[in-house]
Amino acid sequence: MEMLIAGNWRGAADGRTEEVRSPYDGRTIDTVPVATVQDAQAALDRAEIGAHLQRTTPAHVRVDILLRAAALADERAEDIAQTISAESGKPITEARGEASRSGNIIRLAAYEGSQLYGSTLPLDANAGTGLDKIGFTLRQPVGIVVAITPFNYPALLVLHKIAPALAAGNAVVLKPARATPLTALKLAQCFVDAGLPPDALSVITGPGSSLGDVLVTDPRVRKVSFTGSTSIGTRISSIAGVKKLSLELGASCPVIILPDADLELASTAVAAGGYVNAGQVCISVQRVIVDRRVEKDFLDALVPKVEAIAVGNPKEEDTRLGSLISEEEASRVHTSILEARHSGARVLTGGDRDGAVVTPAVVAGVDPRSPLSRNELFGPAVAVSSAPDMESAIAMANDNEYGLGAGIFTSDVAGAVQAMRQIDAGNIHINWSPLWRADLMPYGGLKGSGIGKEGVRSAVQEMTEEKTVVLHGRPW
Ligand code: NAP
């Protein structure tokens, strides 16, 4: 496929292309241009025009365009799902689930773009100010949004940026992950075919390492919305300059299991939440902290459920766990599991590697200070540690540089209330794992997991700016 620069499907300025390959079997799926720095600058130049056009377009016109794009995303959901599965190695059933949310995210964003309310200010409550003035706020689009996305949800994470950005009246330059550019291009096609003004959207393909700095440092860009690793997010925050930043970064999400938990429910949730998308989810269950009084019963319930996860070719309907995004990533995950075993942890099931596939693993007796527990794994393994009581479990959950999601299993409301107050995570689930998201809910991390919130209403807020206006009358 070609990349999209302001309505034109075209190649890179120097004509270079690269192959997009299946991580599962290495077959070539398609080729895409390797954008140059000049291409990125061309996209930004056109975005300047697009931002002006979008800002002067009434919201109801933008809503109509987005609703048409949503209908096209619905119609094309099967093709989008096949593309997601092929380029990411995700099982086709999971890819269908992801693709089927596309239209709804665009529709939710379209609605939020029609809700840019301001407020009136009670200026006369300020001592020294009378009734002769009226103050109010106006919301307007930020202008140009640069969106940079990771490989693990090639449709959802793209749409959580471009749909609210366009709905709010901005122009967008998107740089999707190099491993998964095709899904982003197919989604962009929906907006183009829906009649989006050409200058409002560009999608440039190629390496973030050479394109990222140009995009994030350009002073014409008012907002950078980044989802990816904490290391690159940190780099962006140090060079971006004066602009709004949303950084959705890494994680090592805990689940706490208290002695009064429903262990069947908890083990079912962990067996899903630790292994969806081969564990390559920022809100994946990575650390289970189980009260030691129920540790054995919990593991007895968990292991058979994990062993039942069907590993195989992502194209097949029965497959529940496909490949990781690359053989290098699979090798890194495999090594982490082996290192945990060498340090005394017990691998109760899984953890073997074949190419880019790692079988789903349960690792018990993990030292909570060890790398398998502390660092982001982004692979299909869950590290189980035990705690003597609730206070220690919460302290262990918080003893981590990240704070994206957390889950707690208990049948006691008081324990749940204490946990939701004390756990430092942006999303907390009571009686489910952190791997759960509704596209309209505020979503984002604390601590090293980032700043800012996504979820369409929050994203529209963050992609608009507020102006305060005061009308000065005369005292009467
Ligand atoms: P990544 O390596 O950080 O890449 C993310 C994006 O940044 C890609 O498009 C990448 O381009 C680009 N990039 C690379 N170098 C850059 C630079 N110097 N400047 C600007 N952009 C640059 O992350 P990933 O491996 O794709 O994704 C996994 C990570 O994403 C995990 O840490 C995961 O936790 C995180 N994540 C977080 C959330 C959340 O909501 N908090 C959601 C999903 C994923 P290339 O692909 O061309 O390198």
UniProtKB/TrEMBL annotation:
Q: Which GO terms describe its molecular function?
A: glyceraldehyde-3-phosphate dehydrogenase (NADP+) (non-phosphorylating) activity; lactaldehyde dehydrogenase (NAD+) activity
EC number(s) given by UniProt:
1.2.1.9
Concerning InterPro entries, the annotation shows:
Ald_DH/histidinol_DH, Ald_DH_C, Ald_DH_N, Aldehyde_DH_dom, ALDH-related_metabolic_enz
| Domain spans labelled Aldehyde dehydrogenase | 10-469
Keywords on record: Oxidoreductase
The record, for Gene3D superfamilies, names:
Aldehyde Dehydrogenase, Chain A, domain 1, Aldehyde Dehydrogenase, Chain A, domain 2
Family statement drawn from the similarity comment of this UniProt entry: Belongs to the aldehyde dehydrogenase family.
Q: What is this protein called?
A: Glyceraldehyde-3-phosphate dehydrogenase (NADP+)
Q: Which organism is it from?
A: Arthrobacter bambusae
